[in-house]
Amino acid sequence: MNQTRKNILLFLVSFLILFLELALIRWISTEIRIFAYLSNLVLLACFIGGGLGCYLSNKKIHLSISAIAISVLILFVILPLKITINDWSLHLFKDIPIFLASFQDSIIHYQRTISHLRVMQAVGMTTTMIMFFVILISFIPLGQILGRVFDEDKNTIRAYSINVAASVLGIWGYNVLCFMYAPVEVWLLTSVLLLLTIMIVRADYKIMNIVSLVLAVGVIAGMFYIGQSKEGVLTIWSPYQKLSLEPIRPYNKNINPFTNKHAPGYVLNVNNVGFMHLNNYTAEFKRTHPLYFIKDTFYRNVPVGGGVSSRYNFPFLVKRDAKTALILGAGAGNDAAGALRSGMEQVDIVEIDPGIVKLGVEYHPEDPYTNPKVGIYVDDARSFIKRIDKKYDVIFFGLLDAHALASTMNNMRMDHYVYTIESFQDAKKLLKEDGLMVVGFWFQRIWMGSRIQAMLKEVYGWDPLVISQSGKKDGLGPVLMLTGHSKETVFKIISQSKPEIKQIIKTNIMKYSEDVKVTTDDWPYLYLRTPSIPKMYLCVIGALLFIFIISKFIFMAKGQGINLHFFFLGAAFLLLEFQNINKTSLLFGLTWLVNSINISAILILILLANLLVARKNITSPKIPYILLFISLGLIFIVPLEAFNVLGYWPKSILASIFLNLPIFFAGIIFITSFKQAPHKNAAFGSNLLGAVAGGLMEAVSFIVGIRMLILLTAALYGLSLLALKFSFRNATIK
Fold first, then answer.
1. How far apart (Å, rounded) are the C-alpha atoms in residues 193 and 725?
2. What is the CATH number of the domain that holds 76?
3. Cβ contacts of residue 378 below 8 Å, gap of 6+?
4. Does the pLDDT value for residue 345 go beyond 90?
5. pLDDT at position 304, please?
6. What pLDDT is attached to residue 296?
């Protein structure tokens, strides 16, 4: 194979690795929701598979393995693979969250009461590891090709630059499909077609490769057919989530509810969970369709849209003279419709998912998002409240209890930075002196109610009024918390409200009493009761360590062990990248677009490091190491708040450059060492496996917070320097 074909092959494989990695992370985390809770599990499977592939680059390459693995993953999801435990019929893979909900220190949304704990945990961990292993082996052939090309190419800097550039394009190629609302079948078919192209470039026309690719296309076609065969359901894949809309029953099946707006409304399932409704609460509809309002199965005996007690009406009726409202986490429009019904003259809504807003605009029966009084902001709630310069009579935190991750490179959920002390302080600045803030949440643990209550007390200086909406005062279920700049202000607002409002508050007022740690921007883990690593994480970490040890003895080529220098560089790099994504998210918001830009910027910095090393012919990493440690020390010492004296965009740009300087110096160190490594396949494989270790170490932030990870990162870079200094660059663990 000539050099041009090798470059094309390297580009295609590098593009596919990032593209397939992102596609699997989103798809698997949606259909098997436990992967939305377990930090980076799919990502780590991709890294381990790619790393092992690099080590096996001198072995025979079977592209059919990748195609078959993709087919198996699809079959795990779409086939009715059932197991019965205690009269429960559960899907072996889709119901993994139910199996693992027995780990009581991990909150898994919308799960039933658990019995047979040990059996459930064992089944859950086994099926999770099966999924992990299948994802892992799908990347081994791609890693083999990568390692082989690296080892054979004499121009290391050029080869690595092609790899990084193709990775950037792989990220954006996938994100273009996401922003076009392409369904998952398109993502997977694109991956298979890329596999086919790689096969053609390699001229690898083995019958097994051809059969496996045809099989994969057939399985994807079957997946599409099953998805399209659900009558009365409209499914779209937004840039964030899988959204499935279906009309509230009963409905006239002779009228298409998606071409003719369905009068009662719709149920919107988010990632296969019945997350929200698009309801018709107009007086005219309630008068003509009274049967819809006899009993509300969602809020027990509180009628749907039943006057002032509804969570969609109550927050905007307490303050009678309110004219302006801000709704954070507005969903598809129920809260905005309630604000308009209360007489608000200006309602600003913030919703992170453009797909949910799109469905609200097109299908909400009350059309709140087409009302000229409503301003729509598709943005991260925390980013919006930091950037906006406006005052409101009412600020309402809707139900932002996300269980999805906002990035492929860290364990942050989309709502983590919304529920912190600093976030509530930012929101307080937008509240008028006589304004009312209302925080709505559905609590699954008493201590979570205590946490948000404590944060509001710390920010406003007094205990908020806690109003149960469930009809019970156990603190679980739907709750509203009312607060403002002073207790006297809020009590004055209530004293001037309608009698039915006063009665609801008097009847349902309660208070949480547990002592619990509050969340901050440094420790934003809303769903952790205490600074600790949950048992579910520890079990997964243990299983991964077991896989790592087994793979070392079984899969790694004889004579090629772990290159310590590159291993520690990989661990430090991913741990540093995790921190930078978190910190820049505080500047720009925790959105998919921001995270894609962040990751792309990091890869571009690596390209610039390659260019510098090539132009200046840098052969020693001594000075880059010194600059790396200095930049890490500055990040640890200088808080992001120091940039607040600047305007929003100057602050964001300068802070981003400041945070990413260590990435640039680390890139110089990597390429300087990599071009001198005698076995580049082993070096690159060690780097990927080190990244796995860095991903696992991310869980340390659950205990010490995000800021302290800088010290751990510095220690890992220090170990990489020691490995280099004592001539371990070529030595390996054997």
1. 45
2. 1.20.1250
3. 351, 352, 353, 354, 357
4. yes
5. 46
6. 45
